[in-house]
Design a protein that fits this description.
By secondary structure, this protein is of the alpha+beta class. It is built from 13 helices and 23 strands. The chain folds into two domains: 241 residues, BirA Bifunctional Protein, domain 2 (2-Layer Sandwich), CATH 3.30.930.10; 109 residues, Rossmann fold. The chain is 32% helix and 28% strand. The chain binds glycyl-adenosine-5'-phosphate (GAP).
Amino acid sequence: MENLEKIVSFCKRKGFVFQSSDIYGGFGGFYDYGPLGVELKNNIKKSWWNYTVYKRANVVGLDSSIIMNPKIWEASGHTKTFSDPLAECKECHKRFRTDHLIKEQNCDEANLKCPNCKGLFMPSRQFNLMLRTYIGPVEDDASVAYLRPETAQAIFVNYRNILDTQRVKPPFGIAQIGKGFRNEITPGNFIFRTREFEQMELEFFVKPGEDEKFFEYWVNERMRWYVEVLGIKKENLRIAYQSKEDLAHYAKACGDIEYKFPIGWSEIEGIANRGDFDLTQHEKYSGVDLKYFDAESGESYLPYVIEPSCGVDRVVLALLCEAYTEIEGGRTTTTESAKEIETVLRLNKNLSPVKIAILPLVKNKEIITEKAKEIYNLLSSHFYCEYDEAGTIGRRYRRQDEIGTPYCITIDFDTVEKDNSVTVRDRDTMAQERIEIDNLIMYFYKQFNNL
Ligand code: GAP
């Protein structure tokens, strides 16, 4: 496991993640995903959607608006209580999270010292994390709206629509992937804590009394996704159950899935038993009956909700930390690489941004480059491919290893003159296999799963 600075510089160097507004010196707490990062992120989201929605008959999807009626945030409690304790230094006026400082400095609030100038702090106060904007041409209190701090509330307020239009009944779920915004006091640790991020959330509605069973079910299901589908090592994951005192105001129980990041064990996902808190609140504030009527039993009830809520950006970071491997001296014995540190990104091949690299063995030989381009055209309508003819073959292999490309194909004279076959090289074993061009598509379909 490498340190975070290495991952940050790797991400920038290879085009996974850039700081936002880079040419203007960046913008605190915001990041942009480059060409490789966007592929990795999309593959993660696709995998989550397959696992959560497509593979289950009782889960449906949603894509809601980011800005919603501000009453929603009153009902959910966000306008009042969605805040973090803020400590402001009396001397340099830098601001920090009080709870983070207490943990780092291992002392009580009164004795905290500013990490910047060692000054003392003003009394801590609560700082609301919701990002505000104005809707319409007049900027006054009546036009204030918020960028959603989570996708969950949009699911609760669409619950009635979905119940009325889809053939669903508890236990059933509504899933959504989308952006969330929080005006974090101290964003940091790269894409771990940002002010704009993406969540993958499921709200799973169950009959009261079945909530504890389904809470346990979803904790296990979510762990299974990380280990069996994404391929994260079990020993790098753990579940931290929150004590009753630490629970959020809406939760009956909560288990955080934590990953062993270079910064220490930290949360990538929270799984909460929200009881009927949200539906009760929205029923009260909207005046709309949100109870489910079970025609079979004649019962009417507000379902309880189990919520697995996962941060896409934190999964990206966990996967990069998990996969990034440096091999001293390289894996080959050519003089070119003997003293170098070679990087291999051992990503689960189904998540790799580029799936196949097509490398003509010699350049400037039209007969070979033409064939290589033909193969690129053949494969690129099935898999994300890269064509590269620049540099020595060793260098091109290493470039692909570094960005996690699981397969490289080389095209040589034998391909065009003899056997109509290519050499396929495996990123991890470096084993090479000769495969007929006519069989290539099937060959690769067998190598990749639809996650
Ligand atoms: N609806 C429940 C909810 O939003 P949360 O624990 O505040 O719960 C869920 O957030 C997940 O969203 C976290 O586990 C984390 O992965 C991600 N997340 C939250 N705040 C984040 C931030 N500032 N930057 C990046 N990811 C964040």
